[in-house]
C-alpha cells in the first residue's frame, strides 16, 4: 500500500512538473511572451520587433491582430527589416504607402493557428513542401532544410524560422530572419 501511495505521489509530481515546464513563457527580444496575451500585446514588449510593431500601427492592423483570430504570424525581426534596401521601411510607413505596407504585412499572416508540428505535417503531406495561403491572398512555401523550417516567398526570397511556436491567446508567432515579399 505504501508503494502504491508513493507511486501515485511520484506520478502526480511528475505530471505537475511537466505541466509547469510546458507553460514556461518563451523569451523573444528579451521579453517573456505570454500565451494569455494577444499577438500585439506580446509583440510590443519585444525589443527585436519594434520595426514590425511600428509597421503594424502604420498599416492600421493593430485591431485586426488583437481580434480573436486565430492567426499564424511570421514575425520579421528588426534585423530582417534592416536587410531591405536603405530607405524602404521609412518609405513604406508613410501614409501614402499604406496599401503596399498592408499587402506586405498581411503576407506574413496565415489564418488559423499553425504551430511547427502542423506545418511539419503539411510539409510531409505535401511531399517535402507545403503551400500556405496568406491573409494577403498569395501563397508562401514552407519546407525543411535539415532541422530548420524555411519559408520561400512569391519572389523566391527565403527566410528561416529562428524561434517557433510562440503561443498567443489569438494564435501563434514564428520569428523569422528575413522579410517575406508578395508578388
From TrEMBL:
| Keyword set includes Signal | yes
Domain (FAS1) spans 36-180
User: What start and end residues bound the annotated signal peptide?
Assistant: 1-22
Q: Name one GO cellular component term.
A: extracellular space
Organism annotation: Pedobacter jejuensis
Q: Which SMART domains match?
A: FAS1 (SM00554)
Query: InterPro entries this protein is in?
Result: Adhesion/Biosynth-related, FAS1_dom_sf, FAS1_domain
Q: Which UniProt keywords apply?
A: Signal
Domain of life according to the entry: Bacteria
Which SUPFAM superfamilies does the entry link to?
FAS1 domain
Q: What protein is this chain from?
A: Fasciclin domain-containing protein
- Extract the PANTHER family matched here: FI19380P1, PERIOSTIN-RELATED
Amino acid at each position: 500500500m505504501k508503494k502504491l501511495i508513493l507511486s501515485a505521489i511520484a506520478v502526480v509530481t511528475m505530471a505537475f512538473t511537466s505541466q509547469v515546464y510546458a507553460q514556461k513563457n518563451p523569451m523573444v527580444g528579451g521579453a517573456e511572451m505570454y500565451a494569455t496575451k494577444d499577438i500585439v500585446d506580446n509583440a510590443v514588449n519585444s525589443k527585436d520587433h519594434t520595426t514590425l510593431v511600428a509597421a503594424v500601427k502604420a498599416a492600421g492592423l493593430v485591431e485586426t491582430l488583437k481580434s480573436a483570430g486565430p492567426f499564424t504570424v511570421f514575425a520579421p525581426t528588426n534585423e530582417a527589416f534592416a536587410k531591405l534596401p536603405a530607405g524602404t521601411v521609412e518609405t513604406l510607413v508613410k501614409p501614402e504607402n499604406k496599401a503596399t505596407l498592408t499587402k506586405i504585412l498581411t503576407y506574413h499572416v496565415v489564418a488559423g493557428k499553425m504551430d511547427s508540428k502542423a506545418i511539419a505535417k503539411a510539409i510531409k503531406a505535401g511531399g517535402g513542401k507545403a503551400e500556405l495561403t496568406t491573409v494577403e491572398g498569395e501563397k508562401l512555401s514552407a519546407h525543411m532544410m535539415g532541422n530548420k523550417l524555411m519559408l520561400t516567398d512569391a519572389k523566391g526570397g527565403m527566410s528561416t524560422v529562428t524561434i517557433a511556436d510562440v503561443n498567443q491567446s489569438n494564435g501563434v508567432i514564428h520569428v523569422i530572419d528575413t522579410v517575406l515579399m508578395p508578388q
